[in-house]
Amino acid sequence: MSTLNMLQAINATLRAELARDERVMVLGQDVGRLGGVFRATDGLLDEFGADRVVDMPLAEAAIVGASIGLAASGLVPVAELQFLGFSHQAFHQIGAQLARMRYRSQGRFPMPVVLRAPFGGGVRTPELHSEALEAQFVQSPGLAVVTPATPADAKGLLQTAVRSSDPVLFCEPLRGYRLVTGEVPDEDCPIPFGRSRVAREGDDVTIVAWSAAVQVAEKAADVLAEEGISVMVLDLRTLVPLDETGLIEAVAATGRCVVVHEAPLSAGFGAEVVATVNDGAFWSLEAPVARVAAPDTPYPPGRIEDLFVPTVARVVAAVRATVKAG
Amino acid sequence: MSTTRPAFTPQFMREDGDAAPWTVLRPDGQLEEGARPTLDDAQLREACELMLFSRAFDEKGFSLQRQGRFGTFSPVRGQEASVVGAAVALDPQRDWVVPQYRELPALLRQGLPLEQFMLTFLGDPRGGLAPEGVNVLPIQIGLAAQLPQAVGLAWGLARQGRDAVVLVFCGDGASSEGDFHEACNLAGTLGAPVVFLLQNNGWAISTPRSRQSAAVTLAARAPGYGIPGSLVDGNDLLAVHEVVSDAVGRARAGDGPSLVETLTYRLGDHNTADDARRYQPADELESWAPRDPIARVLAHLRSRDLWDDEHDAAVRARIGRRIDEAVRTVEGVEPPGVDHLFAHVGEELSPRLARQRADLIASVETR
Is it the case that residue B14 has pLDDT exceeding 80? Predict the structure, then answer.
């Protein structure tokens, strides 16, 4: 075991995957000499050379489109989108192209492509750098949407992503890049997609979250524990594929559920969680499922983003209300 | 005393449009003065047969569509020299074609069975499968999206030491998309072995070329990407072949990408759902009829005694038999079902997808 932060875990995993399989390459804006704007690819250019760690023109659609062609040629591109907020410049290459190339070609061209993209708020970025757009990609059949919350999961899920023959959108919580540290196994530890993780055991209520919202939920659970409310925190880890069984069991175990996410409320992935709980755990519920999300407003400038992104206080209040209800 | 300095004028002015397209065969089928064909006699006859095949399939496809036996599809009519001339510049064993959707003869030359193409336009997902060893990507409906993909393919093949060139097709309409710019720009920076074949057929459905861009020629954009650009008579099989061969040769030699604009004309409807009479001026259409790319090659071949009535009849009969055979085959294919919604979405079916599949099968059976 080593104690690493998210960035260190991601960097070490990329290095190991580049060393493991020479078909793997890293490409994106500023990923070479600079090592990425967050340094996730630091040192990789020197170690693996400019053929395998490639600085690309500032053109998101070309980065994703070229990755499709690279994969068709037999390589395994791991592309960085500098921020998920800029993914719309490549949206047509992701949903309409990358995600469905295997289907379109009836299996001839699997797409072993990883798109890494930092996202999420709380670090006072300029406009369009913080948006939690993950739900927008859930309606791109063929694409896995992966949202690790811890360094160990970042490693294990990234290993699985790089080794998968299907495309993966790998959403990295930029707020947690350096803040979130944890024990990471030194050995190979690929984590299968579609397996949620109980981040914290509890009996009274289940908070469902992913990515940076998991830490918010855990802090809320600490506060609530002092009030005698025992909170289970379920980290979905991957939105596509969704661990339906794990979700339903976790909610059925407590009979109460609060979903937390950074994206705006309407049609956020929380809505899918609620519908899935309704489908599979309705008769176990003792209270309506609550959602704590951002309002349906544009992501605001930094000075008011703490009013927008779900806070510990809002989660605590929602859990209290859910526990009292019913 | 201060010296007077000339007033500023932009260094890069609007192009004057003087560039003349490269031609080899005149509309009457005679070679331009001093021109030498880059295809030998057998290759020329083969290319001509492929052009005739394409035209015959367009007619059959329209007729089948009108009878409800074929889906919406886009004929090649008028652009056969542009597509075939480019395709025959490739070596199908090692080179790749990345199509848009109006390039049937290029796909056939690469080895795609006609049945696969027909299945696609019958709305059958199984048509998307190009057999292993047939170097083509699937047909692209999202215009221009194929361009950065082709660059990535060429880049990847080169990186793996394959001696391959990628020929990617787009049209004057698609050249207005952002992906066109991103792809040409990326290809230039990488020196990727890709040839962008921009078929300027005058129309993007009903939108004329003049509405796509104020540029006099689209090939003139190439220097802006640091790559060579060529303008060629797209109804001249030999000219297209020569120019694309030149681009393929440079790509193969490691000298990077090229942009080739073929000046051609879509003779009629965009697709089987279109009615070009609503917008294509009759006199313009008539003015292109004498420049028909197939008539030009046939006149040339006949003038050199490489084609006679007997050969013509034999070729057309062979083409008819092959198309009829393909029609019979695809009409005998069992319609796709629920499995074809779920097969090839991913390597494995997730439990959630498996449940959706089971639910759908149950509901279909109940109905």
Answer: no
Taking the Cβ of residue A3 and every Cβ of chain B, the question of whether any pair is shorter than 8 Å is answered with no
Establish if A165 touches chain B: CB-CB under 8 angstroms. Answer: yes
Average confidence (pLDDT) over A128-153? 97
The whole-angstrom separation of Cα A200 and Cα A254 is 13
Cis amide linkage into residue A241, ω under 30° from 0: yes
Give the model confidence (pLDDT) of B133-162 as tens digits.
Answer: 999 999 999 999 999 999 999 999 999 999
Q: Averaged over A106-135, what is the pLDDT?
A: 96
pLDDT tens track for B80-122: 999 999 999 999 999 999 999 999 999 999 999 999 999 999 9
pLDDT digits (tens, 9 = 90+) for A11-53: 999 999 999 999 999 999 999 999 999 999 999 999 999 999 9
Testing the interface with A: which of B97, B143, B177, B344 to mutate, by most A Cβ within 10 A? B344
- Answer yes or no: do B351 and A108 touch at CB < 8 A: no
Q: Do B153 and A62 touch (CB under 8 A)?
A: no
Among A274, A313, A277, A315, CA closest to A293: A315
d(CA A130, CA A84): 8
Nearest-CA distance from B335 to chain A in Å? 16
CATH superfamily, region B41-335 = Thiamin diphosphate (ThDP)-binding fold, Pyr/PP domains (3.40.50.970)
Nearest-neighbour CA in chain A from B297: distance (Å): 35
| Residues present in chain A in total | 326
pLDDT of B267 > 90? The answer is yes
**For A90-131, where are the alpha helices, taking DSSP H only?**
91-94, 101-104
CA distances from A251 to A224, A229, A258, A278, A317 (A): 18, 15, 9, 10, 19
pLDDT at B366: 72
B229, β-bridge pairs: B259
Which residues are paired to A115 by β-bridges?
Answer: A79, A169
E-strand ranges in B108-201 read: 166-171, 194-200
The whole-angstrom separation of Cα A202 and Cα A200 is 7
Does the ipTM surpass 0.90?
Answer: yes
B316-319 long-range contacts (CB < 8 A, ≥24 apart) are B316/B52, B316/B56, B319/B49, B319/B52, B319/B53, B319/B56
Domains, chain A, ranges and CATH?
2-184 (3.40.50.970), 197-324 (3.40.50.920)
Chain A residues lying within 8 Å of B355, measured CB to CB: 244
- Edge-to-edge, what's the strand order for the sheet holding B96-98? B96-98, B166-171, B194-200, B258-263, B229-233
How many residue pairs from chains A and B have C-beta atoms closer than 8 A?
140
Q: Which residues neighbour B277 within 8 Å (Cβ) at sequence distance 6 or greater?
A: none
Over 70: is that where the pLDDT of A113 sits?
A: yes
Residues of chain B with a CB closer than 8 angstroms to some CB in chain A: 125-126, 128-130, 132, 137-138, 142, 145, 147-157, 159-160, 162, 178-179, 182-183, 185-186, 189, 343-347, 350-353, 355
What is the residue extent of each domain of chain B? 41-335, 337-367
